């Protein structure tokens, strides 16, 4: 399957990544992407920027180095109520919001707590995708969460960095199981490198292998074409991005 969008990338603004937006765009172009989402960590993560950083993404060019730039954030799930650490005023200036569990922000608890937090995050309507769900520190009821995501048109991320196996140890097998459930549920899937250095932007080889092995149809993978991705954004209520029409 061809993957032309990377929906999870970081710049040095995250505090523990090492490249600029322009460097990420150059790598995106070299690695054959049509679009990439810039998704630095929201402010609850140590070293992350103030929410003004995300609101001000409205000044970013839509095209850099011939690649479309999707304005986004990786927000933190804060609590069982499904709140995220992004001021509501920022929503109108972003195209793409990932919500993820991170240990420094949400202390790992139990399956029931994690499941309820994820379902409430989905139902909040503020989140377009759930990030790196394979982390065994945040075990959850796969069926309940993924079927809820399918019902509410929230994408499930398959994360390339997770599949390398040395980050979030124990996640790889869980990612395959998550993908199997998503296939049955008819949930949308998205693909992210989780790049923290520019050369990894667009590195989705392990994700692609997983999708092919599980047999996920391209229609469920929103990053398999520019049209599928932009149609998903519009399904989520985002405004049409005219500049991406020619990509």
TrEMBL record:
Cofactor binding, note field: Binds 3 Zn(2+) ions per subunit.
The keyword Metal-binding appears for this protein: yes
Entry keywords, A to Z: Hydrolase, Metal-binding, Zinc
Residues holding Zn(2+) 2: 16, 41, 196
Keyword Hydrolase in record: yes
Necessary cofactors: Zn(2+)
UniProt: Zn(2+) 3 binding residues: 74, 102, 132
Residues annotated for Zn(2+) 1 binding in this entry: 8, 10, 74, 194
Domain Polymerase/histidinol phosphatase N-terminal: 5-79
Family to which this protein belongs: Belongs to the PHP family.
Protein's recorded name: Phosphatase
Organism field: Vibrio agarivorans
